Amino acid sequence: MYDNLRLFFMSRLLLAFCLFFSFSVFGQTPADWWYFGDSAGVHFTPTGPVAVTDGKLVTTEGCASISSNTGDLLFYTDGTSVYNAQHQIMPNGTGLLGNSSSTQSAIIVPYPGTLDKYFIITVPVPSFGGGGFGMSYSVVDMALEAGLGDVDTLQKNIPIASNVGENVCAVRHANGQSFWIVSHKLSSDTVVAFEFDASGFNPTPSVSLTGDVIDAWVGSIKASPSGNYIGFASQNNVTNGRITLMSFDNQTGLVDTALFWSSAEVVGPYGIEFSGDSKILYVSDGWAGQNRSIVQYDVDNFDLATITASEYLIADSIAFGQL
Fold first, then answer.
1. Which residue in 66, 119, 228, 291 has the fewest CB atoms around it within 10 Å?
2. 285: which strand partners?
C-alpha cells in the first residue's frame, strides 16, 4: 500500500510453522488447504504439507481459505473475490469490501447453527483520517450451485464497524457455538468484539479500552487457540511499532488486561501467531529496510517483565511477511 518495498516483501507469505517446526497432522481439518500470494498454496495432508500451484489469488497481503471438516477445499478469498473449489469465482463473488493490500483482508468463520453457511468478514485499507468502508460481512451458502457455493446477494457487504484497522480475528465464544469478531479501532486504545451467533450478527459490540493508543493500522491481530489471549502486531510509519498481548474473556468479549512493548529485533511488527498450546507468541518484522526478524516470547506467565525477558530471535535477514 505505502511503498513498493512493502508490497514486495509482504507478498512473500511466511509459513513459519512449516519452515521452523516439526508437527504431525492427525486426520483432516477445515485448515487443510491454504491459498495465498501469487497463485501459491499448501495442502496439509496426513503425511505432511504439499505445495500446490492451482490457486487463482494474486494478493500482496491478506487472504483466507476454508475446508470442510473432512478436509475438502470449499472456497478461498483475497477479501474482494471469492473462489470455489474449482478455482472459479462464485456467483455474486466479486466486489467484497476487503483489499488485497490489507494485512488481514478477510477471515472466514462457520455460520453457527447451520451446516452449509459461512461468514466472510472483510476489512479494507483505511484512508487517512477515516475507516474506508470499515469492517463488513458477507454470507456464503455452500448448499447452492450444486455444492460449489454462492455469495448471498441479500447478505453481502453488510456493515459491521467503521474506523477500524487492517486487522480482524475470530475467537470461539465460551459457549462453544458462536464467535467473537475482534478488531482495533484506528488512532485509539479501543478494541471492539462483535458476537456472531445462530441469529446472525449482533451490532452491539463489547468495547474495551486497553490503555495504549495505536495510530498505525498496519499489522495482524490473532487469538490464541485457548481463546484466552489476543495478540496484536502494529506498525507505525513515524515511530517504532508495538506488540500487544491482551488477556481476553471469551464469555463477555472484553479485554481484561493489555500488556504492550516494543522490540529492537522487530521494529515494525506485522505478523503474529500463537503456538498450539497458547504458551508461545511469535512475531514477524514487516518493516522495509530493517532486520526482517522473527522472535518468540514465552507468554505462559502473563507478566510484562517475564515476557520481554524471554524474547528469543528465531531468524532474521529474510523478507518475512505474515505468520
1. 228
2. 269
